[in-house]
Amino acid sequence: MKTVFNNAAQIKSVLRDLHTQKGSSKAKIIAISGIEGGGKRALTEKVAEALQLEGISVAIVHTDDWEACDRVRFNVMNSPAEYYLNAYRLDEMVEELILPLKLFGSVKTSVTLADVMNPRTVDYNFENIDIILIEGVYLLQDAYLALYDYSIWVESDFDAAFALLKSQVDIEQSQKALVNLFEGLIKPAAQYHIYTDDPQGHAQSVYIEQESNDNDNKTE
After folding, report:
1. DSSP label at residue 97
2. Cα separation of 207 and 200, whole Å?
3. Which end of the chain, C or N, has fewer beta carbons within 10 A?
4. Phi, psi at 84, each rounded to 5°
5. Distance between CA atoms of 44 and 56, rounded to whole angstroms?
6. pTM of the shown model
7. For the chain (length 220 residues), average pLDDT per consecutive 10?
């Protein structure tokens, strides 16, 4: 039976035990995935904070920082399947950041996003890492499943996801454009991923957020 979590403290306990019993000096890789706007980032940050309070060294990696350039992501000719395949540079992220970090526990590198809506350079300088938390969409593809020591699917519906995305966009961004992007690419691509990869079925656990987060403040 699949484990169901409803607060970060429960996830922290499982990952703490995984770290304690790891039997290897290599960092453990944890995938926290779900649809865009599903609350993955907030959950990941809560889990990381809880682990760090117990003296476990954590690296957080957001797949949003490995997005493809806008001309690739938002090509008007893109189908949902092409968006799913090309919107994020997951192979590059794994090769340049995740695998070195797993093998050595430390890594210093950076990724530059130039031709994107919010140009930026993201620097990574991780040392002596015990657990790597990768947060993002499309992580639970068959090609990556063997990479993870543990995986979590964050359950969310598309209405809630759209509301969260809407609250995060730049105030100058056209609401109509956001609706078109969500309905034309983001939502169909997520549906394609769910149909093709069955990410919830492949995840070792499912997170369903509870209405009250009081338990998040408890330690175990």
Report:
1. I
2. 10
3. N
4. -55, -40
5. 14
6. 0.89
7. 91 94 82 93 96 96 92 80 92 96 94 82 95 97 96 91 70 65 87 96 93 45
